[in-house]
Amino acid sequence: MAHAPAPVALPTIEFINTEATLQDLSSAVTLLFEPAPPIVAHLYSHRPYASFSALIDETEVLLSNPDKYLTLQEQLDVINAHPRIGAAKANLSALSLIEQGYTPEDAAKKVDATATPSADDEETQRTLKRLNEEYEAKYGFKFVVFVNGRPRNVIIPVMEERIRNSTKEAEMKVAMDDMVAIARDRLKKLNAAAKL
After folding, report:
1. Quick check: 109 pLDDT over 70?
2. Mean pLDDT of 73-90
3. How many beta carbons lie within 10 A of that of residue 24, not counting itself?
4. Strand, coil or helix: what is 142?
5. Number of folded domains in the chain?
6. Please, are residues 22 and 44 in contact by the beta-carbon 8 Å criterion?
7. For residue 119, what are the CA distances in angstroms to 60, 71, 99, 132?
8. Are 36 and 77 in contact (CB under 8 A)?
9. Is 2 within a domain?
10. Residue 5 lies in a domain
11. Which of 9, 41, 161, 186 measures 20 to 30 Å from 192, CA to CA?
12. 107-135: b (≥16 Cβ within 10 Å) or e
């Protein structure tokens, strides 16, 4: 039995539909959604897919109706699969690095031990750490937002607003909606990279 290629690129949808093991699908889905076993289990049981876009569409159905398909703990596991905004570079995937506003060179290196962060970068990191802690204390899960390459300091007022003026239910919905938007953007980038 063939195995999926290392997750630098997505395997073919034909492989996902006909040969992929649960682990193979998990490797592919992690590129799009981060490691989220409840999503993988659902997607595995709903194969085949016409395309990766259709696979994301099925995930959108799952995440738009989470109470129908997932326990509360599974919903939290899916949300908490995403890295914290401003997490240490070493803990982020290459795609997460770029999405969080690091340069492609940062993503390629992951960590530059010789780089000295600026005072502004250090302040942004401290503020994001504090806001992540406040958000998680209030809602019980990680903050998820479709960063889309915006600088980390631009996310600070978004976090502050959502901490002040939202509810747990609204935040869970936003997190799941944004996860789908992130996956669609990642698919677009992976497809573009595959054409190079």
Report:
1. no
2. 86
3. 21
4. coil
5. 1
6. yes
7. 40, 43, 22, 20
8. yes
9. no
10. no
11. 41
12. beeeeeeeeeeeeeeeebbebbeebbeeb
Does pTM surpass 0.85?
no
Chain length of the chain: 196
Classify each residue of 74-86 as buried b or exposed e, where b means 16 or more C-beta atoms within 10 Å of its C-beta.
Answer: bbbbbbbbbbbbb
What is the domain extent for residue 173? 13-194
| Planar angle of CA 168, 99, 67, nearest 5 degrees | 30
Q: Locate the DSSP E strands across the chain.
A: none
**111: helix, strand or coil:** coil
Which residue in 30, 22, 32 sits closest to 54, CA to CA? Answer: 32
Number of CB atoms found within 10 A of residue 96's CB: 20
CA distance 177 to 156: 20
87 lies in a domain?
A: yes
pLDDT at 89: 52
Structural domain includes residue 1: no
Decide: 159 and 135 in contact? Cβ < 8 Å. Answer: yes
* pLDDT for position 101: 53
In the chain the first and final C-alpha atoms are separated, in Å, by 29
- Containing 175, the helix (H) or strand (E) segment is helix 168-194
Query: Which helix (H) or strand (E) covers residue 130, if one does?
Result: helix 119-139
| Contact indicator for 14, 28 with CB cutoff of 8 Å | no
